[in-house]
User: Which sequence fits this backbone?
């Protein structure tokens, strides 16, 4: 088994080979990589089935859904790579040019990071997304997936590397760490001189470990305790539709809603509508109902589970929704600000003043008015796909696409200038 240290050495050696290639050459390779995913679909599905079988009983059903690949999902992975190929090349853009009074020309120009390491958990599709974005932005990538998805990620990586070599590129531009123990994660976190940027993509535990232990540059990606606030001026049918989508369309992802905040003026009418849609109608349709965890005021209006002390600070990633009743938009802002993970927050209202106050006051990477939090996604934002959702403020924030995987340098041209 190739060691993580050797993988890092190979990535560092391969990265400079991307500095002089054209956008067209990169795009041809991306299309070949997408084609290779489809050519090897059966191999990938076979390995994924082994991963899923081993994970049964070890992880929840919603996490199993994150792990599962289907022909449609693999097709979606290939389509995502093709979408990245169609995007403008972020490398080599002149961000700013200044001509000084003495004639010195100073350009600020976008350049690749170099080697990007990605530590992620049980979502095999991250493998192709991360590889595509890294490659198009001129970076080598070192992928470290979770043990639950290792066989799937390995099969995907092998297909991608075949696409690379078939178009004349070094396969070491895309590599998967073979060691799935914690040791390999620590090696990436402390690979100074080899890793230029570390991106963790997963649950709170993984992100916390990377932020606390990394000695390389690390971007904090988002745990998503996402809120939807239903204002007194909300269209209640719209609000129910938005919450149904935000909570149930895919509860295991970071942009799913975890908390519903409701204005007291409409709580008596709205909360029964919410329970009917998320609990009663889903039960009647044979779908898993949403467990409503209610604060004291909500529990006086509808039945559910009493909210515990941690329920407003938990990323459930399941069919569970905490519910809080407040008396004003200011009260909603105060509650969300006390519990936010700075990922995605939403207000449903027809009052422009309330919408403006909410969007200005809430500190999050994405703030929505009358729309589901599920749109916080690279594809939905027109980025092709995403490396993750950054919840920090320096360098990158929100869905991380191609531009966020570049840095810049100053290029200065003179004519014998001396100072």
Assistant:
């Amino acid at each position: 088994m190739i060691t993580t240290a050797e993988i890092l050495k190979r990535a560092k050696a391969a990265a400079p080979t991307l500095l002089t290639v054209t956008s067209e050459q990169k795009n041809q390779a991306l299309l070949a990589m997408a084609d290779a995913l489809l050519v090897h679909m059966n191999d990938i599905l076979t390995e994924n089935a082994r991963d899923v079988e081993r994970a049964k009983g070890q992880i929840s059903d919603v996490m199993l859904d994150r792990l599962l690949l289907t022909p449609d999902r693999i097709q979606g992975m290939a389509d995502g790579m093709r979408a990245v190929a169609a995007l403008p090349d972020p490398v080599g853009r002149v961000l700013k040019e200044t001509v000084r009074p003495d004639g010195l020309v100073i350009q600020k120009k976008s350049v690749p990071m170099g080697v990007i390491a990605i530590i992620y958990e049980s979502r095999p599709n991250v493998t192709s997304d991360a590889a595509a974005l890294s490659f198009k932005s001129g970076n080598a990538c070192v992928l470290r997936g979770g043990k639950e998805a290792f066989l799937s990620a390995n099969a995907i990586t092998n297909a991608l590397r075949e696409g690379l070599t078939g178009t004349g590129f070094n396969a070491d531009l895309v590599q998967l760490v073979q060691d799935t123990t914690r040791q390999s994660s620590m090696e990436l976190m402390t690979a100074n001189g080899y890793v230029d940027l570390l991106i963790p993509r997963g649950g709170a535990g993984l992100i916390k470990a990377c932020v606390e232990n990394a000695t390389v540059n690390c971007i904090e990606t988002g745990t998503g305790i996402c809120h939807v606030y239903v204002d007194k001026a909300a269209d209640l049918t719209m609000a129910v539709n938005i919450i149904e989508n935000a909570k149930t369309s895919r509860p295991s992802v970071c942009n799913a809603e975890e908390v519903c905040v409701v204005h007291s003026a409409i709580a008596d009418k709205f909360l029964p509508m919410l329970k009917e849609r998320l609990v009663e109608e889903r039960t009647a349709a044979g779908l898993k109902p949403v467990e409503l965890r209610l604060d004291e005021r909500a529990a006086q209006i509808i039945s559910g589970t009493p909210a515990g002390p941690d329920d407003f600070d938990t990323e459930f990633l399941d069919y569970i929704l905490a519910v809080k009743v407040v008396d004003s938009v200011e009260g909603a802002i105060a509650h969300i600000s006390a519990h936010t993970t700075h990922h995605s927050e939403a207000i449903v209202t027809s009052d422009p003043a309330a919408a403006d106050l909410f969007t200005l006051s809430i500190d999050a990477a994405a703030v929505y008015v009358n729309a589901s939090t599920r749109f916080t996604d690279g594809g939905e934002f027109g980025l092709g796909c995403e490396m993750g959702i950054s919840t920090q403020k320096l360098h990158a924030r929100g869905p991380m696409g191609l531009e966020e995987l570049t840095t810049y340098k100053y290029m200065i041209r003179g004519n014998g200038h001396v100072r």
User: Anything to note?
Assistant: DSSP finds 14 helices and 16 strands in the chain. The mean pLDDT is 95. The radius of gyration is 23 Å. The first strand starts at residue 94 and ends at 99.
